[in-house]
Structures are given as C-alpha cells and as structure tokens.
Amino acid sequence: MKTLKSEKLFRQALQVIPGGVNSPVRAFKSVALTPPFIKKAKGAYVWDVDGNKYIDYVCSWGPLILGHAHPRIVRAVQQTAKGGTSFGAPTELEVKMAGLICKLMPSIEMVRMVNSGTEATMSAIRLARAYTGREKIIKFEGCYHGHADSFLIKAGSGAMTFGVPDSPGVPQALASETLVARFNDLGSVNDLVKHNDAQIAAIIVEPIAGNMGCIPPKPGFLAGLRKLCTEHNIVLIFDEVITGFRVSIGGAQELYNIKPDLTTLGKIIGGGLPVGAYGGKREIMELIAPSGPVYQAGTLSGNPIAMAAGCEMLSILSKHRSVYKTLEKHSQHLEEGIRDTLGRIGKNFQLNHVGSMYTLFFTEQVVLDYETAKQSDASLFSKYFSKMLELGIYLPPSQFETAFLSTVHSQADLDKTLHALHIALMASVSF
Ligand SMILES: *Cc1c(COP(=O)(O)O)cnc(C)c1O
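Above: the input record for the complex with pyridoxal-5'-phosphate. Below: its predicted structure, written as tokens.
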C-alpha cells in the first residue's frame, strides 16, 4: 500500500491544523497510523491521494446511508447552488424539510434546523432547562452528544457524586449540573433522580449507543426511561443524530416504539452536508425565539444547499422504504460471515449489530455499557484495523466507534470484506 502523498500532506497539516485534522478521530491516533488523505468517493468506495481504493464502512461517520455522491443528491446540490447559496431569509425548502421530518417522525410536531449535531443537542438542553425551570441533566457514560460543555463530562468518583469535566476548559460549575448514569442500567438513573428530586430538567440518551461502539438498549431500558421522565416531569431527549433515518425511517423511536419529548438529529438529514435539527412537542418547541423567549439562532441555519440535499435524502428514503430491509439483509450476511470466522479461530468476540450499524468488540464478555466496552483489547483491534486497511477495507479507526453500511455496498463488496476479515483476524490473533 502506497502512503507517500498522505504522509507528506499529514506532515504539512500538522504545521497548520491542530493534530493535522479538523475532528480528532480522523487522525488515526488510537491505531497509531498516518490517516489516508481522501481524494474522492463514489458509492461504497473511497480513494486516497496515493491511489488506494477502499470499501468504506465509515460513510462520513453515518450520514451517507445511500453511499457517496448519490446522483440525485449531487444534482440537488448543483441545481440549488446556481440560485444562490444562502440568503439569511426564509425559503420554501426549509418548510419542505421541516414538513418531511415531522411527517416521518411523528413525535416531532415542530422542528428547528441548525448546522450540526452539537448545536442540536446543546440547544435542546437549553430548551429543556427553560421548559422545566430546572438546571441538572442526566447523560449516560460513553454516550456522545457533541462537544458542548454540558456533555464533555465523566462520572465523578462514587455513584452519587456530580459529574466532572472530561476536557480542560469545561467549567466545574457547569459540569456539576450534568449527572452521569450507566447505559442499560435503569437503577443508576433511578438513584440519580431520587437524590436530585425535582432538579432534573432532562435525560438525554442515544437510544442505540453508537459512540462507544454499537450497543443496543436492553429490552425495557428505553421504556423505563420514558416512564421515569413522565412521572417526574423530566424532558426525555433521544439523541438520534446517528439512528435517525438509519435504523428505520422513523428512527430508533419507531423501532422500539417509544415517544421522546424532544429528538436531536444530524448526519443523515444533511445528506452529507453540515446539518442538525432538534424538534419535538409543540408545547416545548414554541418556547424557542422568536415564538418564545429561549434564544437560539444561526446565520447559515436552513441554508438552501443543505436543505436541498437533506430533502432529497429524506424523499428517497421515504419513497424506498425497502432500503431498510436490504440493509438488514446485508448486515445479516456480514454478521453470519463474521461469526463463521470467529468460530473457526475459536474466539467469541462480541459482535453488536442493529440494522446497518455494527461493532466487533475484541472481548469475549457481553458488551452492554461503557465498562464492558472498555474490556476490549484495543491493541488487538489496532492490528486488525491496519491489516483491514492494507486489504482495502476502510473501518472506523477506533474500537469504540460504529461501522456503517450503506445501500450501495454490494454482495461482492461484503464478500470481499469478509475475506479480508478472515485474513486480518487470523493474522492478528495469536494462537
Ligand atoms: C455525531 C454525533 C453528535 C454530534 O454531531 P456533530 O454534527 O458532529 O456536531 C451528537 N450526537 C450523536 C449521537 C452523534 O453521533
């Protein structure tokens, strides 16, 4: 595998961009490699500047459920751009986009467009605080909700302590307003609610965890959160930035039949452009300026190009709902192949999968929360990852990320991937 040009670009990048990248995970630090610099992509494939071609399972970290450079999305972007890229004034496309989201996710009665998932979650929290008149929020260990201060929090020592900053620069005063519970552990949430009676504004959760690797909710976990929130007048926020329009047309809330009060969206709804959104009950959403007093704004929010790409994406998905069946069929095939190889090498590594999201954890222990995910052998993952990359398979460069399938990964792509996986696992696992 040639990497000369990427290495040169990375050296240049390190001079002028912190860590050489505009988002940390792209630097391949956890797998100790130089990241390939990508030149172009089409369908299920990406090409780097050295001419290597890869089958892509990152899919821009989730947005590209229809694959790269889908002709209809490219056309929508090109045609819209000709008529101007941003007006800072209302457009018909925004109304169409909002209408589509509300129709496809019925818990969303009103929606506000923003430019990223981070903006969506931080705005949703402000709104929940305003609505309840309370200040504390509960999040789950290992769940990621973007990089706003309130979410870069880890659990303090001892179950009942307040959260502590997980990054320098996050004020302790703010960190203490975020409480951290264990994913899939209703007891830990109950305890926090009990010890902070009538002080919790919101519980925010990835209904299927995707940012500590893929971890599905245990049966009853989400329903338990719903019940607790209703009983204690807490706003339940589903962060569906990954799962929205990925695990089903109505997101994880449709898959598990649970109605959150607010939902945050991103990734797929932008069709590969920078887009986020938050929405939910009318009664709550009407508090947002200018209809209410909760301030939130954005110069480029709802800009025509992003809306055109998003509308096209959602229209395609809603008109071709069979894509979710195809995706499930493909990931079943992948899962069977992976289990077959694991069986042959005598390893019971955990494979978690929901629809087109999956993670192979290098641990033989069931992975159901952050603690158990952390049991994975990260150095083994690194070996496996580099071998896969060498064999032309581009996976997320971290044990704690989710791989994504798109509708354009063909049977041949999957079989090639399984063949590579067999070789990579055989080479990585010492007998
Ligand atoms: C990616 C992600 C975010 C943040 O979105 P950005 O667009 O990167 O700011 C928030 N929540 C979840 C669940 C995500 O996966």
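Notes for the reader.
The domain at 71-319 is CATH 3.40.640.10 (Aspartate Aminotransferase; domain 2).
The longest helix spans residues 322-345.
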